[in-house]
Specification:
alpha+beta, Immunoglobulin-like, globular, five-stranded mixed β-sheet
Length: 211
Amino acid sequence: MLFSHNNNNDSVESISNYQQTCSQFIMDLSEDYLKWIERYNLDDFENTKRRNAIGEARTKTSNWIYKYGNSIKKIDIIMNDGINKMAENTAGYPFKFDIYVGNLYRYTYHQIGEIKLRINAIPRPKKLIRLGKYDDKNTLLVNSSSQLNYHISKESFELVDVINDYIILDVKNGLDRDVISVTTILEECENNFVSERRGYSTIIVLTQDVS
């Protein structure tokens, strides 16, 4: 689900107004996702887990819109990343699935250059797991204010018992405070058939120095 602003005017007033609009949109949309969770009739642990994850995505996305959204494009990237995170956590994860940038996950920072997205995933018993494609045309969903390339090994698409793998992003030409959102898909399979597909969205702010 992608939303974008048709006006490319990056004046201070336009940005400020758009920050407020998008922050409020995230707040309002989070209430819809919370209502969906209630319809699932989950156990208390899973209900609380998903609600907390949506609350965190709502708060951090809003904060990042104001902190790093200094252009219309960056605001769109941050907002859509937050929408993806809320949708992902509404659906939940039937298998273990985490992506790290260094020691950070979900909301991350990295120096300009080569970035390793470290994927850790474990399927449920008697199932296997592999990297999947976002859609028919794209392996990953990438929205970025920087030009970038990425590399994924062919082996990442093979079924395995456990994933401990990397996706390499090349953003050597990025600029300080550029924003990148990457959604990665994993497929849990049984008897060579996909039983579950889940996405995991990671947002990265480029920095000249992460210290």
